[in-house]
Amino acid sequence: MSLTPEEVKKIGHLARLNLSESDIALYAPQLSRILDFIEQMNQVDTSQVEPLANPLDISQRLRLDEVTEPDIRNKYQAIAPQVEAGLYLVPKVIEEA
């Protein structure tokens, strides 16, 4: 798959990149090779492959779910400008149109 300069420009715009014309000429073949490789991987038959959460056959060490820190919320909220019902009150930052 060969990407056109316009397609590379569009990809750059979607990625919020400011690409110069020399960048577009540089990235077009690179992105085309990446897309060709993805297409090649899509052709592989994976119907007999079992999905894995982890490629290693090991179990994850888990720790007990217990509280290890003291609750000092009241200490932090005592110095906050505005608190109500255990929540910090902040100024509204979203303007309605």
What does the model show?
With 97 residues, the protein is mostly helical. Helices cover 39% and strands 4% of the residues. A two-stranded antiparallel sheet has the order 1-2. A hairpin with a 2-residue loop joins strand 1 and strand 2. It is flat and about 60 Å long.
List keywords for this structure.
97 residues; mainly alpha; two-stranded antiparallel ribbon; 3 helices; flat
Q: How are the SSEs placed, and which strands pair?
A:
Layout: H1 5-14, H2 21-42, H3 73-78, E1 83-84, E2 87-88
End-to-end distance: 44 Å
The tally of beta strands, per DSSP, is 2
| Count of discrete alpha- or pi-helical segments spanning 4 or more residues | 3
Task: Please state roughly what percent of the residues sit in beta strands, choosing from under 5%, 5-15%, 15-25%, 25-35%, 35-45% or over 45%.
Answer: under 5%
Shape: flat
Order of helices and strands: HHHEE
Main sheet properties: 2 strands, antiparallel
Which radius of gyration do the C-alpha atoms yield? 26 Å
Helix content: 25-40%
Lateral arrangement of strands in the main beta sheet:
1-2
Mean pLDDT: 90
Low-confidence region ranges? none
What structural class do helix, strand and pairing data support?
mainly alpha
